[in-house]
Amino acid sequence: MSDRPWLVVGLGNPGPRYAGNRHNVGQMVLDVLAERTGARFSRHARAQAVVAETRLGVLPGGAPGPRVVLAKPTTFMNTSGGPVSALAKYYDVPAEHVVMVHDEVDIPFDTIKLKLGGGEGGHNGLRDTTKALGTKDYHRVRVGVGRPPGRMDTADYVLRDFTGTERKDLPILVDDAADAVELLITEGLLAAQGRYHTARA
């Protein structure tokens, strides 16, 4: 493992109006990671984002986990790339150490998938990040929010809050996604995929 830090970005839209939206589940995961480590977010001087610097997880053998910068852009979702690129440059983080945590309509609610590289699947936050970084080769922790019902527009769907039924299970989903981020960083992508890509009881 490189001693370079990891940059973990929770995607979403800024402000209380959007805080409970499906589109903001990535930022919910970042809040859990910060709470676990006692880290506090503060505004970054060189990027439109709030960040918290910490160490995440425990490496095999019991050593403290790698250095991690948790980041939540303060721009809107479709302009996430600028803050991500600025932070990656500031902290000297290579693309393969960038982890984007985001909502994913192409997998069911209560499901987590991880990948390195690949397409953006119509996700504007990822599309802008790829453009700003100049590469698709960064990690994604995809938090399933499911497809919109009936003929509802996808953009409208992700900008709505979770349903009452979903909110009962949301803390478990967010907690599992935070675990997935930790496992990815401490043990690698294959270990994390092996844990989260299998059917859960």
TrEMBL record:
Enzyme class: hydrolase
Annotated binding of tRNA, by residue: 18, 76, 78, 124
InterPro entries recorded: Pept_tRNA_hydro, Pept_tRNA_hydro_CS, Pept_tRNA_hydro_sf
Matching Pfam families: Pept_tRNA_hydro
Any coiled-coil regions, as ranges: none
Gene Ontology biological process terms in this record: protein quality control for misfolded or incompletely synthesized proteins; rescue of stalled ribosome
Key words of the record: Cytoplasm, Hydrolase, RNA-binding, tRNA-binding
EC number: 3.1.1.29
Catalytic site: 23 (proton acceptor)
KW Cytoplasm (keyword) present: yes
Superkingdom of the source species: Bacteria
Annotated site location: Stabilizes the basic form of H active site to accept a proton: 103
Catalyzed chemical reaction(s): an N-acyl-L-alpha-aminoacyl-tRNA + H2O = an N-acyl-L-amino acid + a tRNA + H(+)
Compartments it resides in: Cytoplasm
Major subcellular location class: cytoplasm
GO molecular function: peptidyl-tRNA hydrolase activity; tRNA binding
One CC-aspect GO term: cytoplasm
Keyword Iron-sulfur attached: no
CDD domains the record matches: PTH
Positions of the record's site feature: Discriminates between blocked and unblocked aminoacyl-tRNA: 13
Assembly, per entry: Monomer.
NCBIfam families according to UniProt: pth
Protein family according to the UniProt entry: Belongs to the PTH family.
The protein's role, per its UniProt record: Hydrolyzes ribosome-free peptidyl-tRNAs (with 1 or more amino acids incorporated), which drop off the ribosome during protein synthesis, or as a result of ribosome stalling. Catalyzes the release of premature peptidyl moieties from peptidyl-tRNA molecules trapped in stalled 50S ribosomal subunits, and thus maintains levels of free tRNAs and 50S ribosomes.
Protein name per its UniProtKB record: Peptidyl-tRNA hydrolase
Organism expressing this protein natively: Promicromonospora citrea
